[in-house]
């Protein structure tokens, strides 16, 4: 959903609390599910909640219906292991559009952020250094300190890094406004009235402005968006630890190799964010990612929106004239509305919830062909002490050091490792040396774990949705893969396995089953160039537009959405 609220088509059609505390406030409000609203939002994911909050502020009587017992979609906090609160799916916040943060008064409704500095730590596995501590790369907001760190591996790269950051910052400056802009409606522009065409010209302004910002360097920036990220990074740097660390942002959450054309855009996407005025920042949320959803929900309900959990929608209702008129719940209850906004994926929205006879066959076919591959297995771990890395030993043990707040990149000594891990997954095999992003949100938020203990998020890849040889992700396969991940961590931080209190393993099928992420994909469909902007979710139906009047997308499969989070 755009930060500016509903689109013009939707306007025409209409004419910080914990999760448990939020439920209590909601029930005390005395609201009951009515049989008719102005707008129904299917799914209480963070994007759906943003849509509801904006609609309600416009005076549109809105209800949100969530199938799970908890709101937030993938942005949830769950106590899977007693005493340990996990951001069970998404685990870091960025790309929360500043206008949404301000408009919905999220700080007022309890949202508290922990920005990280330093933010990236890549330890090495180095043997034969004569007893010396293995090297590591620590990056933060201090450029001089970054250059000192990089110089361990290459003095030339240390000199080039500020220029690289400046180069990428200009591209971010040019592209960032497009995140808030609905793409041009090509069909309406071709076949609409002269007045409609003139109005649509305004949607071209962000594109024109982006081109003017990049100026004569546009061809170089075009290469960043379309080339393999290895090609881009090779033009800037020579040291593999630096290139691999930067390349993780080009493949994270994507079934792609750093050698895949277009992987540069995924990197750009992950550096376009910012928090509290700090460009490119990713942060932890006090109370876990569920606190983001709770703040948005509180903003919405404070203005009169209704939100209900354990209310799965079975079908979008369509009248005899081919216009949406509400939804049917799985329990048989019908809810009438003038419009329906779906925070579910395009696949669920159009292939499961919408009566197929009302959608063009070509549209249904395109939706069914969306690339939803995901390489991610998320492992949530409870530990009774901090990891003690060979490359940055703690003295005394369990002492909190700056690198503990970072995204810690393991098996990232060089880009070849990332490519090999990808190739194994393409062959149906979980990576033998998976790319691991290890985060310890309790390093900055002590409310998440008992004293002395910590919660650890392991965002790992590459793992296929379907295993080779027809095998399925049963408990044995899950544990075998998690054990492999833990063995890798043990190599970098001996004693890690002995510190584990419990773990929660979520393979791609698990992420799909629990959170409704198709293929386990955190973006609902791949962030490849053929599925972005004009073509998201499919060409001629980009943005929120659907072939069925009164039905709109407001989730991650649309452009733009409210924000994305890892």
List key phrases describing it.
about 575 residues, alpha/beta, FAD/NAD(P)-binding domain, seven-stranded mixed beta sheet, five-stranded parallel beta sheet, 21 strands
Describe the protein in words:
With 566 residues, the protein is α/β, with parallel strands linked by helices. It folds into 3 domains: 39-112 and 287-371 and 521-553, 3-Layer(bba) Sandwich (FAD/NAD(P)-binding domain), CATH 3.50.50.60; 165-239 and 246-278, no CATH class; 373-515, no CATH class. 34% of the residues lie in helices and 16% in strands. It is built from 20 helices and 21 strands. The strands form 6 sheets. Strands 7-6-17-18-19-16-20 form a 7-stranded mixed β-sheet, sandwiched between helices. Strand 12 and strand 13 (324-329) form a beta hairpin. Residues 1-8 and 16-30 have low confidence and may be disordered. It is found in: Mitochondrion matrix. Residues 48-387 form the Amine oxidase domain. Interacts with COX5B; this interaction may contribute to localize PYROXD2 to the inner face of the inner mitochondrial membrane. It comes from Dipodomys ordii (Ord's kangaroo rat). Keywords: FAD, Flavoprotein.
């Amino acid at each position: 959903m755009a930060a500016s609220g509903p689109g013009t088509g939707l306007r025409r059609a209409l004419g910080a609390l914990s999760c448990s505390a939020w439920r209590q406030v909601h029930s005390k409000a005395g609201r009951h599910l009515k049989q008719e609203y102005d707008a129904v939002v299917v799914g209480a994911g963070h994007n759906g909640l943003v849509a509801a909050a904006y609609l309600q502020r416009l005076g549109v009587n809105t209800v949100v219906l969530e199938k799970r017992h908890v709101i937030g979609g993938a942005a949830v906090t769950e106590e899977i292991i007693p005493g340990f609160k996990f951001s069970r799916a998404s685990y870091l916040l960025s790309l929360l559009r500043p206008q949404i943060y301000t408009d919905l008064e999220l700080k007022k409704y309890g949202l508290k952020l922990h920005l990280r500095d330093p933010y990236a730590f890549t330890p090495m596995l180095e043997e034969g250094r004569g007893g010396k501590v293995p090297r590591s790369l620590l990056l933060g907001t201090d450029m001089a300190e970054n250059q000192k760190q990089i110089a361990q591996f290459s003095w030339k790269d240390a000199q080039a890094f500020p220029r690289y950051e400046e180069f990428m910052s200009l591209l971010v400056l040019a592209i960032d406004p497009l995140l808030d802009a609905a793409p041009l409606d090509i069909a309406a522009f071709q076949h609409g009235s002269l007045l409609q065409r003139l109005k649509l010209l305004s949607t071209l302004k962000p594109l024109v402005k982006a081109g003017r910002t990049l100026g004569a360097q546009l061809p170089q920036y075009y290469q960043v968006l379309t080339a393999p990220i290895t090609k881009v990074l090779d033009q800037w740097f020579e040291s593999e630890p630096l290139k691999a660390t930067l390349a993780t942002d080009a493949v994270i959450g994507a079934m792609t190799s750093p050698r895949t054309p277009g992987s540069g855009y995924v990197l750009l996407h992950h550096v376009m964010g910012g928090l509290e005025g700090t460009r490119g920042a990713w942060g932890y949320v006090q109370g876990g990612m569920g606190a983001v959803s709770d703040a948005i929900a509180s903003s919405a309900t404070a203005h009169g929106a209704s939100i209900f959990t354990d209310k799965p929608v079975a079908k979008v209702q369509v009248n005899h004239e081919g216009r949406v008129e509400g939804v049917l719940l799985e329990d048989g209850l019908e809810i009438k509305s003038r419009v329906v906004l779906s925070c579910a994926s395009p696949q669920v929205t159009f292939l499961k919830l919408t009566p197929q006879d009302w959608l063009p066959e070509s549209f249904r076919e395109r939706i069914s062909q969306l690339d939803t591959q995901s390489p991610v297995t998320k492992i949530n771990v409870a530990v009774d002490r901090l990891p003690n890395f060979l490359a940055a030993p703690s003295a005394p043990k369990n002492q909190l050091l700056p690198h503990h707040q970072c995204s810690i990149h393991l098996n990232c000594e060089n880009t070849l490792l990332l490519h090999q891990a990808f190739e194994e997954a393409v062959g149906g095999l979980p990576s033998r040396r998976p790319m691991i992003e290890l985060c310890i949100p309790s390093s900055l938020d002590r409310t998440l774990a008992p004293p002395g203990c910590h919660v650890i998020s392991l965002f790992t890849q590459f793992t296929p949705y379907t295993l080779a040889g027809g095998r399925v992700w049963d408990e044995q396969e899950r544990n075998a893969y998690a054990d492999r991940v833990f063995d890798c961590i043990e190599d970098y931080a001996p004693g890690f396995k002995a510190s584990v209190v419990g773990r929660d393993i979520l393979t791609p099928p698990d992420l799909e089953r629990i959170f409704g992420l198709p293929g386990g994909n955190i973006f609902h469909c791949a962030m490849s160039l053929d599925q972005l902007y004009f073509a998201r979710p499919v060409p001629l139906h980009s943005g929120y537009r659907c072939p069925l009047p009164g039905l709109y997308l407001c989730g991650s499969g649309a452009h733009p959405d409210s924000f994305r989070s890892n």
